[in-house]
Amino acid sequence: MFDIISKREFWSWHDSGWVDQGRNDLKGIQDAYIMSRLHDVRGRRILEIGGGNSRVLKALSEPALANECWNADAFEGVGNGPREDKNSSMIRVARCYVGNFSAELPDDHFDYVFSVSVVEHVPSPALEAFFADSARVMRPGGLLIHAIDAYVFDEDAVSPRRQQGEARLRQYLQFSDRPDLGLRLREHPSIDGAVAFRCSFASNSDLAMNQWNRIVPELRPMREIAQSVSIKAEWVKMAQ
Q1: Cα 172 to the chain's mean position, in Å?
Q2: 110: which residues sit within 8 A by CB, 6+ positions away?
Q3: Which candidate among 41, 68, 79, 197 keeps its CA 20 to 30 Å from the CA of 55?
């Protein structure tokens, strides 16, 4: 699976109660996607990559679910992230980055590995190590789920930022079928690097993007002609 989250999907997750009513931004959409995939998981080992003070693991670590929940985050404030660990005692925190092959994360251990708004921050040269390390910690048959921020433009928009964004999507798709890493997409990708914005896409609000402009003002011209959406992507670790 490699596609853009749609309004229809998001609204169905909202109707099912998997949406944090206090979040009206892209992360709320992404959290709902992850919860739609994991809400009924019981007695499994789950790792969130770069979860910070995780919203999703808080729900998945409820004692009644009997899940073993981990959070891999160095808490160094990278990407405007937190510096203080406020996760509950039910969540085991590994202070490391996936991609560094840290011994804090055991081999072949996790049934599910996921991230929300993390992959887009991984530098292009580091993507190979990121996916290789993700595969290392997953058990065969495990599922890797990523909600990835992306900007998409109108069909006729011309911008160097658009070219950069499309090149980045093609980089992700280089990991569609990687037997050397033991990973393959769970389903054939539905989009390629040339995706254009459609009204059916669930998207971040203009108000939220303007708040982002205050943090990274140099991206304001791009945000004026692009929309902030989320990719939903799922890989399976193949049996060795």
Answers
A1: 12
A2: 45, 46, 47, 70, 137, 138, 139, 142
A3: 197
pLDDT over 70 (residue 239)? yes
Assess contact for 162 and 219: CB atoms under 8 A: no
**CATH number, domain with residue 61:** 3.40.50.150
Bridge partners, 191 (sequence order): none
3-state secondary structure 163-185: HHHHHHHHHHHCCCEECCCCEEE
209-232 burial string, b = 16+ CB within 10 Å, else e? Answer: beebeeeeeeeeebbeebbbbbbb
**Arithmetic mean of pLDDT, 127-140:** 98
Provide the residue range defining the domain that includes 10.
2-237
Domains: count for the chain: 1
Helical segments of 85-216, H only: 127-137, 160-173, 206-215
The pTM (predicted TM-score) of the whole model is: 0.94
Amino acid at 229: V
Of the candidates 40, 41, 164, the one whose C-alpha atom is nearest the C-alpha of residue 111 is 41
Mean pLDDT of the chain: 93
- In tens, the pLDDT along 6-18 reads 999 999 998 888 7
DSSP summary character for residue 195: -
